[in-house]
Amino acid sequence: MELWKMSQKVSELSDVIPSYFFSLVSSCLSLSTVLVIFSVGTWGVLGIIVFSFYVVIPYLLFAVPVQVLFNKHPKKFSLIYFSLYIFFSLLAVFIYSSVLNFDFSMDVLTTMDYYAISLLAALLFWFWDSVFLQKKSAAS
Fold first, then answer.
1. Residue 106 to residues 8, 21, 48, 85, 121: CA-CA distances in angstroms?
2. Could you report the per-residue pLDDT of 62-72, keeping only the tens digit for each?
3. DSSP letters of 73-98?
């Protein structure tokens, strides 16, 4: 690969990294805020910070790679992208819940919290992804 092509790719990548960062941070803070508001305890700002650290790991492992793939063909507020985010969110919450609870049974699938958190995580990430990254085309 020629040097100028490589530097052009690095330049393009460095232009979108802040958008990925803002999308990730906004998603983590939004999800954490909603979780703290609807949790039984009174966590406050400390809870938002703590939950954000727990939420960033599944977002980085599952959502950001999908987001990078989607950014190759940007579409704002695409329902197809939202559906795929839901799928990966269900998978991520299942794996994350199983690992944190050391329980690899399918019992987590019977709780309403599993579906609520998965849908909320997908919705918030899809929203912030559409706001910060998916800029080229209109909603589908």
1. 47, 33, 28, 21, 20
2. 888 898 888 88
3. S--TT-HHHHHHHHHHHHHHHHHHHH
Pick the closest to residue 16 from 106, 138, 132 (CA basis).
132
Task: Specify the length of the chain in residues.
Answer: 140
DSSP 39: S
Contact indicator for 51, 36 with CB cutoff of 8 Å = yes
For residue 53, what are the contacts with CB-CB under 8 A and spacing of at least 6?
Answer: none
Measured CA to CA, the distance from residue 38 to residue 71 in angstroms comes to 32
**Residue 133, token pair as written in the block:** 């990254």
Token pair of 58, please? 């599944």
Could you report the per-residue pLDDT of 49-58, keeping only the tens digit for each?
A: 888 988 898 8
Q: Which amino acid is at 126?
A: W
Least Cα distance to 24 among 69, 55, 51, 70 occurs for: 55
Residue that the structure tokens 């706001």 belong to: 131
The pTM (predicted TM-score) of the whole model is: 0.80
- Calculate the alpha carbon distances from 15 to 18, 33, 68, 133 in Å: 7, 29, 13, 11
The count of C-alpha atoms lying within 13 angstroms of the C-alpha of 8, restricted to the half-sphere facing its C-beta, is 5
